[in-house]
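Complex record, two chains
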Amino acid sequence: MPEPTSTAAGLSLTALSIALLGPAAGPWALILFAALAGAQWPLSSTATGSRAAGAWLLLRCTLTSLVLTAALSAVLEAQFGWAAGELLAPVAFFVAALGNGWRPVIGALGAAASALLGRAAGSREAGGRDAGGQP
Amino acid sequence: MNTSLILLALHVGLSLGLWYSVFCRAVKSDCTVRADVRAAFVVLGTAALASALAPFLWGLVPSWPVCALLAGFVLVHWVTARHWSNGVPYAFLRNECRPRRRAGDRGCDLAGSER
């Protein structure tokens, strides 16, 4: 009975699939797997009328994750120094699991940006007042 | 045909079948379903997907016990599919989302005995 671990036959199948699809197939397949796994959460929490609607939601979440994962991983690597290659799967899972919940995230980002802008404008006004005020 | 190739086809087919059954249940689920039930199905679907991709990504060699386990899971899902034919089973719904039963609705046996 073959052992359920990496053996020559298994490795040859993996090598064959990589040879067929190219060296980037591994990371892309990992992102696709994590995205599909994450997209199951919004699928199970959203009322979808039919299997076609469910498949469309799954596809939408997966494609969103495929598009955003590489860029988000690069941003996280630049900000925190975490290796982007190791972040691909968790980031893809998280982005896909967010599903239709992007509106509050974008709203929160907008609120944070407006707060930053307001703070910057306030500090500029305060600086101008200090510079032009009476001694 | 080579035995290992048959096992591989069986392994991938059963894994994809299991994932499809989870997908069908997820389509019928919504926010009225208990979170632990939804999480359990997400974990099962993720495991089924990983099992289907493992021979191609991580060099897993399918074996008979794993295929038998997968077949058992698929069989359980196939047999219990009739409980999902009218939507999510009552026991899987959150308490506040369960439809209220009528006071006189006690089931067929009691209703028949009262007549």
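Note: Helices of chain B lie at 3-28, 35-57, 64-79, 108-114.
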